[in-house]
Amino acid sequence: MSMDLSATVCALATPPGVGGIAVVRISGPEAYSIAEKVFRPANPARKLSQAKGYTALFGHSLRPDGSVLDETVALCFRAPRSYTGEDVVELSCHGGSAMAEGLVQACLAAGARPAGAGEFTRRAFENGRISLTQAEAVMDAIQAAGRQGAALAAASLDGAVARRIGAIREDLTALAAHLAAWVDFPEEDVPALEPAALTATLTGCRDKIQAMIDQWGAGAVALGGVDTAIVGRPNVGKSTLLNLLAGFERAIVTPVAGTTRDVVQQTVQLGSVRLNLSDTAGLRETADAVEAEGIRRSYRALDAAGLVLAVFDASEPATEEDARLAQLCRGRPALALVNKQDAGAQVFDEAVLAGCFSDVVHLSAKDPASLQLLAGRVETLLGVANLDPSAGCLSGQRQLAAATAARNALDDALAAGQQGFGLDAVSVCVDEALHALYELTGEAADEAVIEEVFSRFCVGK
Question: Would you say 215 and 222 are in contact if contact means Cβ atoms under 8 Å apart?
Fold first, then answer.
């Protein structure tokens, strides 16, 4: 069911609670008539209903009985050049629950309906002002973990992903039109595509989609961070590393083996990547029931991690536990951190690490200079170092699934051509790829998909 755009809605657009200002947004065909009932300009000669777009008026907000609620600024936006594509008035009052809630209640009493979660952005989508990928970028911008993630979200919000997909669609649409004409109107002597030209077009589009798929993981890390497990046997410096990354003493550090008995969690920013850290109990054989449970949780954290920081002690010989941990990290996104480079003699045999890790990093978890070294290695391992935020990047499982479906359809088209199934089979596969790309940008997305996208939003956005 399409959204009812005839209703005028309002909601608090800033987080609830105490703050410098609170903003109440009103959007819809009656936005100005409702706003005039709750806002009185300080200059009696000014009328809110006559205000042009992109202008501001100072005055006072009013309670339903006409008494003054607060000093307020009204920002005016005219359709279609507003966030929603509709007439919009944003009323800014002093922050705090009483003022903000009072202003919302006054708008409701004046005839507005409470906006649902994500309804303002949903209206922008329904009004054709933004694509579905741009709508998803709104939440990415709100939740971005760092500068690079924010840049990615900003590029997508500006339409970078939609433009990349649009360029691919143009090539496939031209190809589909030629194929359809050749298949459906043989009497018109439509020239058949040369096999080499057909293969080149299909391969070029397929490779462009594959490039976006390949960048998805790095983009997801830049936008939302990565769950990271710090693992190793007791006393190799795991908690010291956590404290270094956190910038304060988050975990207890002692010379006693088994000090950490549970998973200690902390979110930190390392370079351009947000790490959702889990410092785990030291991996070893133990008869202590409490420590054993902590070790079981350590293995669970390792299995679930998108990044593993495996810590080894450079000042001690490699043990069976070290070798076992190295094997557990084989095939995972993992770095071997050979710690305690400041501890004198280096006796750890790094042969036990061979073939198990993407990289081996030599550092001292007591030295702040290790942060920059580790940041660079993490960014390289996760693909973030080579990510171009301005190019736009797929966001979320929905976009990834649609892009993958389009890539698979083009693989089928190439296979159909190579195996001699005829151009009609190729045409069907190209149409499937186009449909998947239209689903990605939202033009062919069904209501259930759209509802799922906007279910992530909060009220007021």
Answer: no
DSSP string, 137-198: HHHHHHH--SHHHHHHHHHHHTTHHHHHHHHHHHHHHHHHHHHHHHHH-GGGTPPPPPHHHH
Contact 99, 93 (CB under 8 A): yes
For residue 189, name the pLDDT band (cuts at 50, 70, 90): low
Q: Phi then psi for 305, rounded to 5 degrees? A: -75, 140
CB 91 within 8 A of CB 103: yes
Phi, psi of 195 (to 5 degrees): -50, -40
The Cβ-side half-sphere exposure at 434, using a 13 Å CA radius, reads 15
Give 107-154 pLDDT, tens digit per residue. 999 999 999 988 999 999 999 898 888 888 888 888 787 778 888 888
**Most confident of the following: 29-33, 254-258, 289-293, 363-367:** 29-33
> What's the CA gap between 212 and 440, in Å, rounded?
12
Helices (H), 366-395: 370-381
The DSSP annotation for 5-49 comes to: TTS-EEEE-S-SSS-SEEEEEEESTTHHHHHHHHEEESSTT--GG
Query: What SS3 string covers 291-355?
Result: HHHHHHHHHHHHHHCCEEEEEEECCCCCCHHHHHHHHHHCCCCEEEEEECCCCCCCCCCHHHHCC
Query: SS3 helix, strand, coil % of the chain, rounded to 5?
Result: 45, 15, 35
CA distance 136 to 403: 15
Burial class (CB in 10 A: 0-12, 13-18, 19+), 73: middle
DSSP state of 117: B
10, 106 in Cβ contact below 8 A?
A: no
Distance CA 6, CA 291 (A): 62
* pLDDT at 421 (0 to 100): 78
Query: In angstroms, what CA-CA distances link 15 with 26, 45, 456, 458?
Result: 16, 34, 16, 10
Average pLDDT, the chain: 86
E-assigned strand segments in 340-436: 359-362
| Rounded Cα gap, residues 397 and 222, in angstroms | 15
The per-residue pLDDT for 1 is 40
144-154 pLDDT, tens digit per residue, is 877 788 888 88
Please tell me the distance from the alpha carbon of residue 240 to that of residue 57, in angstroms, as a whole number: 55
Element of type H or E holding 269: strand 264-270
The stretch 351-368 carries a mean pLDDT of: 91
| SS3 state of residue 418 | helix
Question: Cα–Cα–Cα angle for 156, 159, 163, nearest 5°?
Answer: 115
Sole residue written with tokens 């301005």 = 390
Phi and psi at residue 375, to the nearest 5°: -60, -45
